[in-house]
Amino acid sequence: MKNHQSESEQFHELRRKAEEFLDKNPEEMLPENVKNLVEELNIHQIELEIQNEELRRIQRELEAARDKYVDLYDFAPVGYTTVSAKGMILEANLTITAMLGVERSLLIGKYFSGFVTEDTHDVFYFHHRKLFETKVRQNYELKLVRKDGTRFDAYLKSVAVEDTEGNITRARTVITDISDRKQAEEALRERTEELERSNRDLEQFAYVVSHDLTEPLRTVSSYVQLLERRYKGKLDADADDFIGFAVDGATRMHALIRDILAFSRVGTRGKPFEPVEAEHIFTEAMANLRVAVTESRAVVTHDALPSVFGDASQLTRVFQNLISNAMKFRGEEPPRIHITAERKGRKWLFSFRDNGIGIDPEHSDRIFVIFRRLHTRDKYPGTGIGLAICKKIVERHGGRLWVESREGAGSVFCFTLPVQENKGVPK
Fold first, then answer.
1. Same domain, yes or no, for 232 and 317?
2. Which pLDDT score is estimated for 426?
3. pLDDT averages per 10-residue partition of the chain, 427 residues
4. Which of 230, 265, 300 is the last residue of a domain?
5. Which helix (H) or strand (E) segment is 286 a member of?
6. Residues 7 and 109 in one domain
């Protein structure tokens, strides 16, 4: 810009002298070469004026861009600093000054380590040295100290700044205050620990209560059954009914306690996970259901089943309960159940499709809640815990259980299991 202004001044001086010469000498008396020179001077003046205007426009754009950059830099939602190889702060935006509670004039020239807590000094020095040694971006967390002595958690992203010869001259760092996130994570961790502790206590309570009830119930059941065998038909009809009710109640109570024990043991008495063939799980479940399959004339088929990673006995129970439910809640036709397994990304999707009575979608979540029943015991016997146990087992394996159904149109019970490629599970 300065060179152009100097040239313009020289031009105007030359033009002034030319105009003085023209004033003293009529134009028609000038030689031809002088006339050409005057014309060239006029053209050159116009070009210079155009160039000056373009330069002024560029200057205005540069100033606007600079103002925009300054605004973006200073008022960004994160802190920005530029630090020398020795750790001295060379540049800082207003956000980091607000974070630290220090004016920019008092921040520039200070060592960044002076704002780092003593217990995280080593972390800062390690990553700062590594950045200058390797030129690899460093992401890490620190605890920083404000001017008033309070501390806060910060997340830093540092990149190397090189000169034209490829030498690192300084580090540019983005600093984010993550105190709120850290507090939320700590609160969540404490809440999770509290819930886990509460769940363990509840499971232990259920186990103890169920276990302690088993023995007296067995005694009651034995004596009621003895009464039934010894006195059935020897008393009046009402007495036979009363004894029958007592036997049935004791039997149902025993089944209920047994299932509560099973539910409480899913998370505490399960076996370690290991590779297991789902084909073997299916075979075991079908062997346990042989009598029910024969009596209901059910047809149970399946596609190829994969290897999975889990507790074989618990997964057998899931297969067994889902097949048993499909046979129990059947319609007019004999039950038809088909099992498929399909890989969906990092999960296996198992589906149990039946031709049973179906479920109103309004109740699709309710059936997995312990003791929740959609039908009376007289119509469909059971404790109402089977699906709750299945859900708990699947969740223990890191999966999810749900049902897709319409009333009168059969059901598809689905659950997922994670793919464990590094533990004997096929890809």
1. no
2. 37
3. 57 66 56 63 72 75 64 75 92 89 90 92 93 92 92 93 86 92 90 81 69 72 79 77 76 69 67 91 91 90 93 91 87 89 93 87 72 50 72 91 83 90 44
4. 265
5. helix 278-288
6. no
Rounded (10°) CA dihedral 367, 338, 305, 347: -40
Q: Is 166 helix (H, G, I), strand (E, B) or coil?
A: coil
SS3 assignment, position 91: strand
SS3 state at 328: helix
Q: What whole-number distance in Å separates Cα of residue 162 and Cα of residue 33?
A: 56
Cα dihedral angle (40, 46, 47, 49), rounded to 10 degrees? 140
The two structure tokens encoding residue 82: 């530029």
Residue pair 206/267 in contact by the 8 Å Cβ criterion: no
Q: What is the CA radius of gyration of the chain?
A: 42
Same domain, 305 and 369: yes
The amino acid sitting at 111 is: Y
Beta bridge partners of 84: 170
Residue 424's pLDDT is 40
SS3 call for 127: helix
Nearest to 253 by CA among 223, 292, 289, 210: 210
Last-in-domain residue among 177, 209, 230: 177
∠ CA 95-97-101 to the nearest 5 degrees? 120
Which conformational region is residue 165 in: left (phi greater than 0), alpha (psi within -120 to 50 degrees), or beta? Answer: alpha
What is the residue range of 245's domain? 184-265
pLDDT at 376: 46
If we measure between CA atoms, which residue out of 48, 63, 39 comes closest to residue 10?
A: 48
Q: CA-to-CA distance for 301 and 48, rounded, in angstroms? A: 91
pLDDT at residue 329 in the model: 79
